[in-house]
Amino acid sequence: MENELKKIMAIDPGAERIGVAISDFTATIANPITVIKHVQRNKDAEQIVKIALENSVKLIIIGQAFYSNGEPNPSGRKSARLADAIMQITDIPVILWDEHESTQLARKARKEMGVKKKKQITHMDDLAATIILQSYLDSLSKNASYSNNLLEP
User: Fold this and answer.
1) Cα(51)–Cα(71) distance, rounded to whole angstroms?
2) What CA–CA distance (Å, rounded) separates 48 from 55?
3) Measured distance CA(62)–CA(129) in Å, rounded
4) Domain ranges of the chain
5) Are the CB atoms for 64 and 98 separated by under 8 Å?
6) What is 7-143's CATH number?
């Protein structure tokens, strides 16, 4: 359908919490949605897919961390395994996306928003997921290869 609206979801997987962000229907603006408590990879995948289905998501982006040489670091390899677990239980496409400095950018954003220093140390997983998603969405508009059938840059 040419006029079909598309929502994209981003995941910032962490050791204790998983940040979730979802785009608007035009796949232009990223918004933080929730934070999921990390339990176990397959259970996390089930929760992520449930949120995706509830929100009519057409694509799931998983933040992946890399070493400076371009190889996934241990956290990045965990992201890949989470992506695999998600793909086992849904037909929604899943893409791994470089989460370069998303948590640091989330901290900086909180500081610039005037959040008191004491509150800045709380979890920022949903904000980090929002930064990952906005990075992906921005790449779509830069590459101009976005189409109604393909959500990859």
Assistant:
1) 30
2) 11
3) 9
4) 7-143
5) yes
6) 3.30.420.140
Per-residue burial over 6-31, b = 16 or more CB atoms within 10 Å of its CB, e = otherwise: bbbbbbbbbeebbbbbbbeeebeebe
From first to last of its 153 residues, the chain has per-residue pLDDT tens of 344 568 999 999 988 999 999 999 999 999 999 999 999 999 999 999 999 999 999 999 999 998 889 899 999 999 999 999 999 999 999 999 998 665 555 555 556 656 555 544 556 788 889 999 999 998 887 665 444 444 554
Q: Which of 70, 43, 59, 87 is nearest to 153 (CA)?
A: 59
Alpha helices in the chain (DSSP H): 41-54, 74-89, 102-112, 117-120, 125-143
Cβ atoms within 10 Å, residue 61: 28
Contact 92, 57 (CB under 8 A): yes
Distance CA 63, CA 65 (A): 7
Per-residue tokens: 98: 């470089």
Residue with tokens 């785009």: 23
Structural contact between residues 94 and 80, judged by C-beta atoms closer than 8 angstroms: no
